[in-house]
Amino acid sequence: MLVKLTRGWQKFKKPQENTAKYEENSVWHEMLNPTPGVRRMLITGCGIQIFQQITGIDATVYYSPTIFKGAGIKGNTQLLAATVGVGFTKTIFILVAIFLIDKVGRKPLLYISTIGMTVCLFSLGVTLSTMEDSKIGIVLAILCVCANVAFFSVGIGPICWVVSSEIFPLRLRAQASAFGAVGSRVSSGLVAMSFLSVTHAITVGGTFLVFAAISALSVAFVYKYVPETKGKSLEEIEMLFQNDSHWTEAEVEIGDMKHLMEKQ
């Protein structure tokens, strides 16, 4: 009896395993040979994850004592206080983002975040290059770093993970989100490891001017490639990316939905 049950279970289990294996292979085939719509999703999901890091947020937080020393702060107590202020600011504004994300929307917060970061990074670069060892320079450097962290935390910091989880259909979400996470971590590591070498080559101020230029590019990326996903279903979001036109401005109509469902 036990042998019969075991054989019956094996017969039942084998088709399920074959189906799961086929579905997994199908997903990877779609990821590695994407349709235009999936390609746009990957550009958006991976791109926003990479921009989150190459604007220098981890370098700003990790090396904030170095930045403040460059501005002219000498005492360890003052350095510690300024560094703690940066961490406190980051935590507070992440909480602000939680309350605003469904009220304001993803894209407006991304605009506020990336534009604000661009201004702060540019101001920090100019301050560190022209006002070293002055009281005004120290105050401005602290304000610029804290403001940059605040703009990051209220926008692109948390929202890139939200957008990445919303734009991919369920069949691709796990693998596609993993692609984005890998891009984020690799970018973070490269920025963190190269920061000190770059500052020695072009100064701390020059490094933040480079970050400001990259942040300005992130504004253009948000405009071009990131759609507003607030209040949209998975089908509506997928239709945005299937549209050949400028999908950040596309509207989903009932006829489009029927076309998408028929295509699937």
TrEMBL record:
<dbReference type="GO" id="GO:0016020">
    <property type="term" value="C:membrane"/>
</dbReference>
<dbReference type="InterPro" id="IPR036259">
    <property type="entry name" value="MFS_trans_sf"/>
</dbReference>
<dbReference type="InterPro" id="IPR003663">
    <property type="entry name" value="Sugar/inositol_transpt"/>
</dbReference>
<dbReference type="InterPro" id="IPR020846">
    <property type="entry name" value="MFS_dom"/>
</dbReference>
<feature type="transmembrane region" description="Helical">
    <location>
        <begin position="108"/>
        <end position="130"/>
    </location>
</feature>
<feature type="transmembrane region" description="Helical">
    <location>
        <begin position="202"/>
        <end position="223"/>
    </location>
</feature>
<protein>
    <submittedName>
        <fullName>Polyol transporter 4</fullName>
    </submittedName>
</protein>
<keyword id="KW-0472">Membrane</keyword>
<comment type="similarity">
    <text>Belongs to the major facilitator superfamily. Sugar transporter (TC 2.A.1.1) family.</text>
</comment>
<dbReference type="InterPro" id="IPR050814">
    <property type="entry name" value="Myo-inositol_Transporter"/>
</dbReference>
<dbReference type="InterPro" id="IPR005828">
    <property type="entry name" value="MFS_sugar_transport-like"/>
</dbReference>
<feature type="transmembrane region" description="Helical">
    <location>
        <begin position="79"/>
        <end position="101"/>
    </location>
</feature>
<feature type="domain" description="Major facilitator superfamily (MFS) profile">
    <location>
        <begin position="1"/>
        <end position="230"/>
    </location>
</feature>
<keyword id="KW-0812">Transmembrane</keyword>
<dbReference type="InterPro" id="IPR005829">
    <property type="entry name" value="Sugar_transporter_CS"/>
</dbReference>
<dbReference type="GO" id="GO:0022857">
    <property type="term" value="F:transmembrane transporter activity"/>
</dbReference>
<dbReference type="Pfam" id="PF00083">
    <property type="entry name" value="Sugar_tr"/>
</dbReference>
<keyword id="KW-0813">Transport</keyword>
<feature type="transmembrane region" description="Helical">
    <location>
        <begin position="136"/>
        <end position="164"/>
    </location>
</feature>
<keyword id="KW-1133">Transmembrane helix</keyword>
<comment type="similarity">
    <text>Belongs to the major facilitator superfamily. Phosphate:H(+) symporter (TC 2.A.1.9) family.</text>
</comment>
